[in-house]
Specification:
The chain folds into 3 domains: 85 residues, Rossmann fold, CATH 3.40.50; 61 residues, ATP-grasp fold, A domain (Dna Ligase, domain 1, 2-Layer Sandwich); 195 residues, 2-Layer Sandwich (D-amino Acid Aminotransferase, Chain A, domain 1), CATH 3.30.470.20. The chain has 12 helices and 17 strands. Strand 11 and strand 12 form a beta hairpin. The strands form 3 sheets. Strands 9, 10, 11, 12, 13, 14, 15, 16 and 17 form a 9-stranded antiparallel β-sheet that branches. Strands 3-2-1-4 form a 4-stranded parallel β-sheet, sandwiched between helices. It is of the alpha+beta class. Bound molecules: adenosine monophosphate. Adenosine monophosphate binds next to strand 14.
Length: 387
């Protein structure tokens, strides 16, 4: 029998690929537990670099720098999916990369992800791969309208998506795609959107956070409430689905499973998987304030081979994203003092200096005795911000 590798204990150094807000919150969790953190990102003074011990600024395809970075750390994880496979492979030759590069390679490519899900029997929206305008026309005829054309790579927050409501829009949609390959999906008429954040340890242990209910605006997550306002049977099904996907991927780390809940005549409804992300996720930010262990600490524990933490939700919670749009157009800061006067509201800012419309700059959370109160208060706080 192979001897178990020992855990990576506090005092050791974690490398994180990607320097955004997910890495920042991971670094905060890791440093709190006495780890050293190195962050690699193309942009200097990135959100993760600001709180890491060491910031490495280099393009992701700079394999030589990635190799030096790997030489300085004990384990590598990531918060950004589009690190080239060659870079990940070079790093993985020197130091453990968790989750494994293969997991990343599956989930960051929409067609590979859909193929993985459907061949393992997980429910997904009907889809077709398309690599020409004729393929697209044929797919739209088969799937019907409305449907959504999505890029196979670099797609998130609705980027690279075109809704096709009429077959006459096929040519224009193909022009907009700007990639040699895309995926067309049937439009899902969902009751609501849910997500489950699941963690899986090196020993196969699994822990899932409470099911989150998510509202999107312009394809970007807007508000999350936890616990989700859906029947218990739906929650159980969502958790079973997420844990099963984590096992099928042989995941070591954290995975977000985004789902649509669809009416099917039963009280519990039917779940359809929309997307996977093998890292902490925006819809899990509530856990930073509201759970015994946050999704970021859980990622740390999983990649270090430590026991997974207790995921109990301490109180009902709501999270509202803060996009660049809440910053005053003429410059200056939003009215943080007004938002923070609302009971239970907490502020998270990611240290980004340029507030562009649609850019995720931070979020608010609010805990209360019930989700309706938490939601109303977090929205009240956000509404108090502009100008
Ligand atoms: P995505 O970038 O694929 O996660 O999509 C962002 C958002 O667009 C989702 O959270 C949904 O609100 C919406 N969306 C994506 N795909 C579909 C679909 N097939 N049917 C209906 N809405 C969708």
């Amino acid at each position: 029998m192979r001897a178990a590798t020992p855990p990576i204990l506090p005092g050791k150094t974690i490398g994180i690929l990607g320097g955004g807000q997910l890495g920042r919150m991971f670094a905060i969790a890791a440093r709190r537990m006495g780890y050293r953190v190195h962050a690699l990102d193309p942009a200097p003074d990135c959100p993760t670099g600001q709180v890491a011990d060491v910031e490495w600024s280099a393009p992701y395809d700079d394999v030589a720098t990635a190799v030096r970075f790997a030489g300085a750390v004990d384990v590598v994880t990531f918060e950004f999916e589009n690190v080239p496979y060659e870079t990940l492979q070079a790093v993985a030759e020197l130091v453990p990369v968790r989750p494994a590069p293969l997991v990343l390679d599956t989930t960051r490519h929409r067609l590979r992800e859909k193929t993985f899900l459907s061949t393992h029997g997980y429910p997904v929206a009907p889809y077709r791969a398309v690599s020409s305008v004729d393929d697209l026309r044929h797919a739209v005829t088969q799937l019907g309208t409305p449907c959504i054309l999505k890029t196979a790579t670099f797609g998130y927050d609705g980027k690279g998506q075109t809704k096709i409501t009429d077959a006459a829009q096929v040519d224009a949609a193909w022009q907009r795609l700007g990639q040699p390959m895309g995926v067309v999906e049937g439009f899902v008429n969902f009751r609501c959107e849910l997500s489950v954040i699941v963690a899986r340890g090196k020993n196969g242990a699994l822990k899932t956070f409470d099911v989150a209910e998510n509202d999107h605006k312009h394809h970007i997550l807007d508000v999350t409430v936890v616990p989700a306002r859906v029947p218990e049977a739906t929650k159980r099904a969502a958790i079973d689905l997420a844990t099963s996907v984590a096992r099928s991927l042989d995941l070591v780390g954290v995975l977000a499973v985004e789902m649509f809940l669809v009416e099917d005549g039963t009280p519990a409804g039917r779940l359809v998987v929309n997307e996977l992300a093998p890292r902490p996720h925006n819809s899990g930010h509530f856990s930073f304030d509201a759970c015994v262990t946050s999704q970021f600490e859980q990622q740390l524990r999983a990649v270090c081979g430590l026991p997974l933490g207790d995921v109990d939700l301490m109180r009902p919670v709501a999270m509202a994203n803060l996009l660049g749009d809440v910053w005053p157009t003429g410059g200056g800061e939003p009215a943080w003092d007004k938002a923070l006067a609302v009971p239970g509201v907490k502020l998270h800012l990611y240290g980004k200096t340029e507030a562009r419309p649609g850019r995720k700059m931070g979020h608010l959370t609010c805990m209360a005795d019930d989700v309706e109160t938490a939601r109303a208060r977090v929205l009240q706080a956000r509404a108090a911000l502009p100008g």
